[in-house]
Amino acid sequence: MATFRDVAEILFAVVLILGVFVSLTPQLKNVIKSKSTAGISFTTLYLGTIGSFFTATNAVLLNGMYLRYDIVGVLTGVKKSLLLFQLVSLWVMYVINYIVYCIYFKDEPKEQGSELAATPKEHETITDDLDLGGNHYQVEFPEKSHSRMESKQWKIILASTAFYLLAFVETIFIAVVLVVLFGIPDSRLTLFADILGYITAFITVIQWMPQIIKTIKNKSSGSFSIVMMLVMMPGSFVILFYLAYLSGERFSTWFSYLVAGIQQIILLVCIIYFDYIAPRGVSIKALFKRKKDQPDTNEGATTYVNVDEQTHLVGSSVNTKNNSTFTQQ
C-alpha cells in the first residue's frame, strides 16, 4: 500500500515534469518572437545542454533496472519512470532551445559597456575619394556585409556543437557496450554513471556564471527570458528539497542544485535591476543610500521669470530666444 511519502514523491515528480516545460518554453518563445539571441549566453545554454544529457544518461544507467515492473513492483516502477521522464524531458527541451538559438543566431555588436539598445546601423557605408576628369568627388559605398559563416562566434558554436555530438555518440556507445557485456546492475556500469554524475555536478556549479557576466556587461537581459528564471529558480529549490529530504540523497548529489539556485537568484536580481529599475534612473547606490535631509535655504537656487523688451538686464545672463529665461545671480 502506498504511503504518504510515496504519494509525495509521485506528486513532486509530476510537478517537476510540468516545471521543465513551463520553465524553458518562455525562453523558446522569446527567441522565436524576437528572432534574436541577443543577451543570451551561448556558454550557459551549451553547458545546460551537455549537463542535462549527462544527468539523463546517469539516471538511466543507475535506475534502468527499476523499469522492470514485474520485479520491483508497480509503485517503485512508476516513481522511477517519472524521474527518468523528467530528466529526459529536460534534456530534450535544452536541445530544442539550442537548435532554435543556432537558427536565430546573429553576431552581436562588441560590448562597450553600454546597453544592447546601442545597436549598429542597418546600412554601414565606406567613404572613398574619387577623381573623374579632374573633378574631385567623395562617394559612399555600402560596406560589405559579413555572412554568419565568417563570424568568430558562429565558428565557436559550430566547433562546440561538433564536440557535443562526439561526446553524445561516445557516451551512448560506451553505455550500450557496458550494458550488453555486463548487464544491469554492474559495478563497472555504476562507475561510468558516477563519472557522468561528477561531470554534471561541476557543470551545474558553473553553468549560470557566463549568463550573469553577460547580463552585467550588456546591462540588459536582451532576449533572455525573465519568466524562465521566475519559474526555474524556485524549481531548483524544489529539486533540492526533493533530493535532500524526500529521496534522502547524499550531499554530493544535491549540492550542485543549491549552488545553481543561488546563481539563479543573482541572475534574476541583475535582470530586474537592469531591465526595470535602471531605466528609471535609479542607481545601485541610490537603492542602499539613505535619503539626506534637503537644505531649507534657497541660496544658489535658480529663479525663472518671463522676459520682455522692457526688462532690465543688469547683472544677468539672458537667452534671447523665444521663451527666454532670466537667471538671478
Structural class by sheet pairing and helices? mainly alpha
Helix count from the secondary structure assignment: 10
Estimated radius of gyration: 30 Å
Distance N to C terminus: 89 Å
Total count of strands:
4
Order of helices and strands: HHHHEEHHHHHHEE
Low-confidence stretches: 111-124, 315-329
Report helical residue fraction.
55-70%
The figure for the number of domains is 1
Could you give a short account of the major beta sheet?
Answer: 2 strands, antiparallel
Global mean pLDDT? 77
Strand content: 5-15%
Assembly type of the chains comes to: single chain
What is the approximate shape?
globular
The strand order across the widest sheet is: 1-2
Protein name: PQ-loop repeat-containing protein
InterPro entries: LAAT-1, PQ-loop_rpt
Organism: Acrasis kona
Keywords: Membrane, Transmembrane, Transmembrane helix
